[in-house]
Write a structure and sequence with these properties.
The protein is an alpha/beta fold. It has two domains: 141 residues, NAD(P)-binding Rossmann-like Domain (Rossmann fold), CATH 3.40.50; 128 residues, Dihydrodipicolinate Reductase, domain 2. Helix 1 packs across helix 9, helix 2 runs parallel beside helix 3 and helix 4 packs parallel to helix 7. The longest helix has 17 residues. The chain starts with 7 loop residues before the first strand and ends with a strand.
């Protein structure tokens, strides 16, 4: 377990747009919050040259322990958590920016057990999931009866696998529902695009990846926004027969081709600020 320090050291895994933003915020504002960069790792190290100080660049991810990070922030790809999640949690808290990794039940179980065993927190950022804590509260009480997340983006903003990629290319000029069904089956087909849905499945834990529904829509008219619609269904008033429902629609500014909308960057930074030790458990932040 990391020793108590006045400064909380943060390692960033992934140096795409989101990783660059978080690393920059830590460098610029970290001192105000008691943060400092421990390291930055990226699959292609040259991308960091000129953007990350040489002494902060981690060449070999297997050597992350030597950098003594208190918090490791993954914003790369779910495969990182599948390969390293347990090891990260042995030594530090871990914020998982690719929670689609937990659609694999074995990965979910192993990481939760590692958090419990070593006393570190497994953080799940809410990202683009509006109302995440309210959904979690309902799940805790068992009153969450149904949850559906619909994500609509320009076709160029999707990074898809297999038949879904083929469907997107075949129907690129028209609005197309690419998928509508359980989130668990969708995560391997769109691992970089449906982290919001994976976060919903973790927040709505009484339904989980099997019963939380995801709908992915490619819409070429969405030139400036990503849209996330969330439909929550709760209990029925037995005497009146009325059902509790909440529907939200989030329009996140984003040009075509961008996987992450602008508002999600600041949401992630807010989550990092909240990652200050919550014990050996999964924690939505």
């Amino acid at each position: 377990m990391a020793q108590e320090r006045n400064v909380r050291r943060i390692g960033i895994i992934g140096f795409g747009h989101l990783g660059q933003y978080l690393a920059g915020m830590i460098e610029e504002e970290g001192h105000q919050h008691g943060f400092e960069l421990a390291f930055v790792w990226n699959r292609h190290q040259k991308k960091m040259d000129g953007n990350v100080r040489k002494e902060l660049q981690l060449e070999d991810l297997n050597k992350f322990v030597a950098r003594c990070a208190d918090l490791i922030v993954e914003v790369a790809h779910p495969q990182i958590i599948k390969d390293y999640g347990e090891e990260f949690l042995k030594h530090a808290d871990c914020m998982v920016g690719s929670p689609t990794a937990f659609a694999d039940q074995e990965v979910d179980t192993r990481c939760r057990e590692a958090a419990r065993r070593y006393g570190h927190t497994l953080y799940i950022p809410s990202g683009a999931l509006w109302g995440a804590l309210d959904i979690q509260k309902m799940a805790n009480r068992g009153t969450l009866k149904a949850l559906k997340v619909t994500m609509s983006k320009h076709p160029d903003s999707f990074m898809l696998q297999g038949h879904m990629h083929e469907l997107k290319e075949r129907t690129k000029g028209q609005r197309t529902v690419l998928y509508d069904g359980p989130v668990r089956n969708l995560c391997p087909l769109a691992p970089n695009n449906v982290n919001t849905m994976a976060a919903a499945a973790l927040a709505g834990h009484n339904l989980g990846f099997e019963r939380v529904q995801g709908c992915l829509v490619a819409d070429p008219s969405l030139l400036n926004f990503h849209i996330v619609d969330i439909e929550v269904t709760g209990p029925v008033n037995k005497s009146a027969g009325h059902e509790f429902t909440v529907k939200t629609s989030r329009r996140n500014p984003a040009p075509p081709g961008e996987v992450t909308g602008m508002a999600t960057y600041t949401s992630f930074w807010s989550s990092v600020l909240n990652c200050k030790g919550h014990g050996g458990r999964l924690f939505l932040c």
